[in-house]
Amino acid sequence: MKLGIVGLPNVGKSTLFNAITKKGIPSENYPFCTIEPNVGIVSVPDKRLDVLTQMYHAKKTTPATIEFVDIAGLVKGASHGEGLGNKFLSHIRECDAIVHVVRCFDDGKIIHVDGSVDPIRDISVINLELILADLESVQKRLEKAEKMRKGGDKEATLDAELLQKLLALLENEQPVRAYPATEEEKERIKSYFLITSKPIIYCANISENEVGGPDNDYVKKVKEYAKKENNEVIVCSAKIEEELSTLDDEERQLYATELGLQESGLDQLILASYRLLGLMSYLTAGEQEVRAWTIKIGTKCPQAAGKIHSDFEKGFIKAEVISYDDLVAIGSYTLAKEKGKVRIEGKDYVVQDGDVMLFRFNV
């Protein structure tokens, strides 16, 4: 899962990304994965893994991960090459969702690019740039589709009809995600790699002294704006997140308690991203490793097995399944089997969040 972080200069985007990279997982833990300077990989918080690691005395614990991409330099005019934004717009197209960081604090020492703090204006500037970038992309695709359509290409005809609808939406300064697409259209839109088709979370960046307190007026405005779009807002202090990311687990917990934080803003953001993209985790557990695997909600057994290895999906026979809660309540997998709590599930079983699974396959 890859999230693109966008925002105007001086809104706290880079500070938040610094927190992500400091908390990040060393790239050497993930072979075959080249981590660029503007990419940070962090683990998805899941306390179930700690419990299972102790239960199995596992040698290794591997959490599910999420990738953040820092999209630098977006300013007014970015879609037409202003600033550095245009160079990085292509990176957003590769992301699954967007995290839009919005400045919600006053600080005379930190100059705002537009001279004053106005989160709704800032949101509108970024959103318009992303819409304009998509508008250019859709126009080019439509021209190509229309040419192929004249030659009798049926797929091109379907593309042209859909692209015309999206063009009208974008010209009205509406994002592609506002289009009421059918399931078939959703798949087609996905192939266009349009920025505004991606789901979005707003991250309201507040000052350090407002952490744990009531929402300020700026945050209230952002929440009101997001509610109209049916989008979620995570409130956090990027500066505090950066400080928390440098501490060990015990120090972090003490500092968070002192600040009145039950959960760090970064952890909230990661979990909100999971919800936004309709994701969940199933678990595998053994003496060698306890691991969380990310899948879409509604995934069936063979496809879930394929997340581990394609051979598991091709040769899927059955799966032994027990819910995390049942396993922990009983205390051991062996005892759970004896009590008949471990189920045998086939190809049509829809995997549930927190299922502890063992796959049987043959290739």
Question: What features would you highlight for this structure?
Answer:
single chain, 363 residues, alpha/beta, 6-stranded mixed sheet, 3-stranded mixed sheet, 14 helices, 12 strands, 19% strand, flat
Note the gap between the termini.
29 Å
Helix content: 40-55%
The biggest sheet, with number of strands, parallel, antiparallel or mixed sense and barrel status, is: 6 strands, mixed
Number of strands: 12
Any idea what the radius of gyration is?
Answer: 23 Å
- Low-pLDDT regions: 27-35
- Number of continuous helical runs: 14
Strands in their spatial order, largest beta sheet? 2-4-1-5-6-7
Anisotropy-based shape: flat
The structure class reads: alpha/beta
Assembly level: single chain
Tell me the series of helices and strands, N- to C-terminal.
Answer: EHEHEEHEHHHEHEHHHEEHHEHHEE
Measured by DSSP, the beta-strand proportion falls in 15-25%
Average pLDDT for all residues: 88
Summarize, please.
The protein has 363 residues and is α/β, with parallel strands linked by helices. It has 14 helices and twelve strands. Strand 6 (200-205), helix 7 (217-229) and strand 7 form a beta-alpha-beta unit.
Describe this entry's structure for a reader.
With 363 residues, this protein is of the alpha/beta class. The protein is 43% helix and 19% strand. The chain has 14 helices and 12 strands. The strands form 3 sheets. A 6-stranded mixed beta sheet has the order 2-4-1-5-6-7, sandwiched between helices. It has a 3-stranded mixed beta sheet with strand order 3-9-8, covered by helices on one side. Strand 8 and strand 9 form a beta hairpin. The radius of gyration is 23 Å and the shape is flat. About 2% of the residues have low confidence.
